[in-house]
Fold this protein.
Amino acid sequence: MNRILSHIRNSLAIKVIFSTVLLSLVVTGITGSVLNTQLSAGVKDVNLSSALVEARSTIFTAEYRFLLAQGEKDSVVQKVVDDVISSATTLTSNENTREVVFLRSPGNTRENNYEIASNLLDPTSIPSTLSERVRKSPDLVYQYTNMNYLSGIRVKGLAIGQKVQIPNAGQYEMYMIFSLANQEKTLDLISRSLFLGGFILLLLVALITWLVVRQVVSPVREAAMIATEFTAGDFQKRLKVESQDEISTLGLAFNEMAESIEKQIARLENLSRVQQRFVSDVSHELRTPLTTLRMASEVIYSTKDTFEPIVARSAELLVAQLDRFEKLLEDLLEVSRFDAEVAVLEAVDFDMVQLVQRCADDLGLVAKERKTQIYVNSTEPVIMIKADIRRVERILRNLMANAIDHSEEMQIDVRIVASEHDVAVGVRDYGIGLDENALNRVFDRFWRADPSRARTRGGTGLGLSIALEDARLHNGELEAWGRPAQGAHFVVTLPRNTWESIDQRLIPLQPEDYKA
Amino acid sequence: MTLVMVVDDDQDLAEMLGIVLTGAGIDVDLVSRGDEVMDVFRNNPPDLVLLDVMLPGLDGIEVCRLIRAESMVPIVMLSAKGDTQDVVKGLEAGADDYMVKPFRHPSELIARIRTRLRRTNADVSGLLTIGDLAIDVQAHQVTRAGKQIALTRLEFDLLVALAKEPGRVFTRDALLSEVWGYRHSTDTRLVNVHVQRLRSKIEHDAEHPEIVVTVRGVGYKAGVMGGS
């Protein structure tokens, strides 16, 4: 039921047809019943007046004959009564049956009794209310009643009566009862025809509505379909405009909008291409001199032992700053690739545990310099994952380097947890930690927790923001937790299969060792 | 003495490369335009070509193809772009190795050059067979039914590395260190592209390789064909 209702709500065509049919039903209902009433009233009127005319003439004839039989013998009077009845009930073709009833008026105590009803009609078919009115009235009186035969048959009828004087027998009431069976049939036919007509009319209205609605709805449906395809990325899609009605106005408006969107997109695409081109050019133009610089500085550095101490130190600084400059250039190019949305994933299968271990080993020397140590702990010995190994390695290195920078000579714990679907790596340090404000900004570009702190050698301020972008490129997530002086916890969660998204967080962001 | 041809349009960088290589005891031939490479190459065949990607006249990828058409000399591409497409294009054009500018250390460049120049597999002697291929390690020749198959030095090294231990599965990392001399690198594109190139030369049907077989999720191994 609910499904049907929602279907009605969702389809414009069904909604329109439904309400049109409902309204038509009310209109045809009213019209039909008015027609029915009028027609049946007309039919009844006609029947009534013809019955009255006939009854009047029959009763007049009877009175006349009774008058002629005045003073005759009882047997003659009896014959006259029989004659009156038989001539009155003789049918001419296509007419309703009619019956005649003679009732003795109350108070008539004469000996001779001519009370009779024709064709075994039960005299009680004459309602007593009619009898009373007949007795009081000098003229014809009628009433609708039922004709009850002694055989049990019951027919609707019209009873018309008047007082008559029968010779030697006093006052009687003479009734003619006309069967209304034919009239009932006619009325029945009229109402059935009206009902059938109304029903057919309703069907036709529904059909017409459907045709009309289809004319309106199908272009709307088509427009909706085209709009859906347009949204899905097919910007060439246009509506066909063939007529000059409101639907075509809609089509024209839609097409104009599509045109404008397509242009806008082309412009943006062009911008992105220009940006990409720029990045590539900058990359090339900067890298070549940087390569020369690097090599020159290395040549100088390799012979620094023969220099004066000041020159030797300068050579060291030169090499170190070139390193930093190169790293910064690399990071800037990566960031601009993310901004231009041209960063691509190159997924390969590899062992996450091995990669984490290798990163930890590579950073071991730096960690030692900072008097800390990285401990790697994995739930499983081998965790295969399909991802861009270069980017994952960069995430891990950035997180570990960050932890080393803020470790305050405390150890660093790296945890690897895998499920069927995801793998998570948590990097926990117990150093200076992060406050609320720092947590909100830790992934911002060039943001530093404490500007007064010495910058770490090699850090560009872009590491964590690139790590976040790298994680998101994998449909993964990188999150940070921290408390001042309680250390920090960075958790990266990646799907084990590229292009899938992560199911759950395998490592709770708030470290289990932390008690609030 | 070893001769390396340096093709780069940046005069300063070319000069610097010259200084570094000469310092390492390597002779250098400098060329600054792509369309001049082939003349110099034919007149004075080098032992190795150091080739920049962006060159005036003719771009490095095209030059690489031209050299490959007539020589199996080792080619190391110098690229200012780390983007995969360019790297893969260079490798597919026939380069053995590539270095992205700026290099970490000049010594790294020299190490790469030496790896490419070194006679690898000196420890393996005699004849290896794999599938229906016969490999003469000393003579640097691969034959199938007496017919010689021309392989670059790197492709040869790759094939020998696999054929030495038939059936052993080599990870891409292992091949990188074995054949390219990388201590550790995550760049497996080198391996993938060269395996494809090697297959196109030695397999009956490169789509269904039988000699260099992929082990899904791990790496490659030399397939042992039925009966051989």
User: Anything to note?
Assistant: Residues 20 and 205 of chain B are 44 Å apart (CA to CA).
